[in-house]
Fold these 4 entries.
Entry 1:
Amino acid sequence: MAHNFIQHPDFKTQNINTPSLFLTSSLALLPPGLDPQKAMNIILRPQRDLDIKGASLLQQKVFSLFPAPPHSNWAIDLVQVQNIDHFGLTTLVTIRQAAQHYQCNLYLFNLKPSVRYMLAITELESQFKVVDNLETLFTDGLRIVLC
């Protein structure tokens, strides 16, 4: 299937292969005829721990992508995040609030035990949709942003 690519000038491009999905950072994979004003599927993948610097980078990238079309799916892939502190937790809550404001779905996945533990002890775990598998969530175009 041919895809149209839209390059965002602020993001580096990096190809990532997974068994189920082909993900390209900073590129929106838009099947022909897909209206970019309609709901989007976006995966954000922080490339470092969510401390003051990592949380700030994630928040900047997320807010550069708003306003998002209603009913978009946003997933934060925490596969590279080993630790999260109060700055990271605050950023996740802020992103969740923004997603709710724009009527978007927000998911967290690939949580390390230390991150899951921090969400649990701060009682934030119940405020997020944590999923193990994104294949069923994303059926249309996909955009991934490395933060």
Entry 2:
Amino acid sequence: MTKSCALQWDKVLASGNRVFIGSNAGVPSALIDDLLNNPGDLNDLEFVHIFTLGKPAWAQLKHRELVKINSMFLGEGVREEVAAGYADYTPCFLSEIPHLFNEGVLRLDAALIMVSPPDEFGYCSLGVSVDIVKAAAKAAKVLGVSVRENVRFDDGFFVNDKAHQLEIIKMIRKYKPDVVL
């Protein structure tokens, strides 16, 4: 169940800010919906993302004054907007994107991401969409997180010791017996 936050976005963001949006199944929909519905005096935000599942809400015509899209992957959800000139496409290799964030080539004012609930030590997982999200979260001046209850802390994580490495090797070999590690 999603509840409305009604955050005062113009207190933490400024018009013209570049905002990274978590990717794939890790799009923080509740935060995005709240921002789109309660922008205050904001306009001309640049939303940077790599890929979203389906058509993102921020790509709708009614949000064009608020949001300019900068997609680093030309997915189905924004292809028409790029072709029509309403969105930008920045082609680059996925492996290069963290460098763009870390070195300030693509400076991030904010990152809106989804995380798991914290574990007993206070750590959260980036869950199903780690890809470039960790680099974006570290590089952004403002970090907005949406906690998703059905993402477990151990999704996408394992203890990096010999026993756990061997378990992963066994799983890989089970499905890809020609792989040599």
Entry 3:
Amino acid sequence: MGILIGVGVKLNYKALFPQQLNRQIIAEPKGWRGRKISLQFLRGHHGQLGVSSQKRGKENNIMSIFLTIISGVFVFIIGQTILKLFVEPWQKQRECIAKIAHHLLLYANVYSNPGVGTEKANNEASTETRKLASELIASCYRIPFYKQLAKVKLLPASKKILEVQKNLIGLSN
């Protein structure tokens, strides 16, 4: 007994596996040039035989490769967008906060003893403090959705940043 599948392909399922009908085979019919079909022989409720087939060939492989490349490019674009919009500006803000801490420790002798240091040291400390204050406030504007991210405690609160900026400007005067 045989089964006629597609274009002149006839398989004798009893000759293939007489005891076990719940199996899958992959056949490559003559003249199909590299295209294969996957056959699944199943036994139904009343003993009838069912055949499920699927063509497998170069078209499926090319489509699979194409979809893999497209999804890889899509993931790369999403990752770079998140990196450029959120991660890099957040790192710059953290770097700015670290620069402010470094600056305050470096010029602590100038700020703790006003009028004692040289005029050049006082002017240098004042100018650098104003630069860092403006850089700090600018770092908040670089990050999109800053207020929403600050509300969920992912970033420093805007009020605290403004307070620090005002204190740095006051210190530089």
Entry 4:
Amino acid sequence: MVTPTQHHYEAWCERDGRSWSVDIPELRIHTYGHTLVDAEEMARDAIAGVLDVPAGSVTVSLHVEEVEDQLAEARAARSARAQAAAREKEALAKAVAALRAAGASQRDAALLLGVSHLPDLGRRFGHRRLTARGPATATTDTGPGPRPHPSGSGRGREWTTWRVLTARVSTT
């Protein structure tokens, strides 16, 4: 978001030999930079000089006309991926809650959800440890960490992850 003390301008870039030519049509400024990072900095400095404002108050959006469509498509795909990840997280949380209520074991839940083991789910839900306190609340667990399994097989971590998932589900 641009604040009232900030100035935002669009800059159009084009490769010119070994450097980038930059035009800011709104202010009729032309500059260049060896890289796009340099070009952005030069554009920001040029705008600040013309407007007589600090360079830190100027923001610039660079556009490369020849690839603008591909950049827009990539940005849209990235946004769609983030939205899909959020939907997946919510769906997994609901599935874990339903499996937990049905009495599924950790191994069964992992199998049905298509993960190799429950720590994979824990990474998707974050690593903050919570423990359930009643049907709809959760508190932070200040314990020393996952309890090691007596056999040393690492099953303690899976146990902790299951607690994280069930506690997060109960808070929604």
